[in-house]
Design brief:
single chain, 95 residues, mainly alpha
Length: 95
């Protein structure tokens, strides 16, 4: 009877050891996955911020180029209008 009791306690001790080990391994792997995903999230966030900044820079450059092109067209239009008016005035003077 005493041997059966000791064997039962040893078996229960082994079983509890295995259960505890499995629980700890689960939490260990869960922590590792959490750390990996946290690192991936930080990298993704940094990548997003860099992409957003690059898009902003590209858009600023495009807007600047479009504004320069518009300014050139406006200057050409102003000069063309002045030439037309000048030609009309010259025709009135010498007609």
């Amino acid at each position: 009877m005493m041997m059966n009791s000791i064997k039962y306690l040893e078996d229960e001790d082994k079983l509890m050891f295995e259960v505890s080990k499995n629980i700890l391994n689960f939490y260990w792997s869960l922590g590792d996955k959490y750390d990996k995903y946290w690192e991936k999230l930080k990298q993704t966030e940094m990548s997003y911020k860099l992409s957003l900044a690059k898009c902003g820079d590209d858009n600023d450059e495009i807007i600047h180029n479009e504004e320069q092109e518009l300014s050139k067209l406006i200057d050409e239009m102003k000069k063309a209008i002045h030439h037309v008016e000048l030609n009309e005035k010259l025709e009135k003077c010498f007609a």
